[in-house]
Design goal:
The chain contains four helices and three strands, in the order αβββααα. The protein has a three-stranded antiparallel beta sheet, with helices on one face. A hairpin with a 6-residue loop joins strand 1 and strand 2. Helix 1 crosses helix 2 and helix 2 crosses helix 3.
Length: 128
């Protein structure tokens, strides 16, 4: 399956599920805004994560996308699934294989966005 077909299939699944990990307007303040290049015209995607850190584990992981293209929503949904209930100390160990498995295929674009988001989220939570 081509990368564009994978992105289309994943995005259709997320839309059909009504963006299950998207933060609601009234939810907590974002932990960190993560900026990742990728939109048409080389503009910025802006991805915010909200979560609860409980007993050293990431809980109730949600996201808010601004100016985002479909691939960023896929990245956000996949990361929420993979980060939920993960020990904070193992955040940096989230690897490409886990993302590929959650996607059901490989997308260089989504892998690049996921690596950046996890790195910046790790930096934001380093003092937690």
């Amino acid at each position: 399956m081509s990368e564009i077909e994978l992105i289309r299939r994943c995005y259709e699944r997320i839309v059909a599920a009504d963006f299950p990990h998207a933060a609601q307007d009234d939810e907590r303040e974002a932990v960190k805004g993560v900026r990742v290049r990728g939109c048409h015209g080389n503009t910025q995607n802006v991805l915010f994560f909200t979560l609860t850190l409980e007993d050293g584990r990431l809980r109730d992981v949600r996201y808010d996308c601004q100016y985002c293209e479909p691939a960023m929503y896929i990245t956000a949904e996949v990361l929420c699934e993979l980060l939920e209930d993960r020990p904070l100390g193992l955040l940096a160990e989230l690897d490409d294989a886990a993302v590929i498995g959650a996607l059901g295929g490989e997308s260089r674009k989504i892998l690049r966005q996921a690596r950046t988001a996890v790195e910046l989220l790790g930096e934001a939570l380093a003092g937690a």
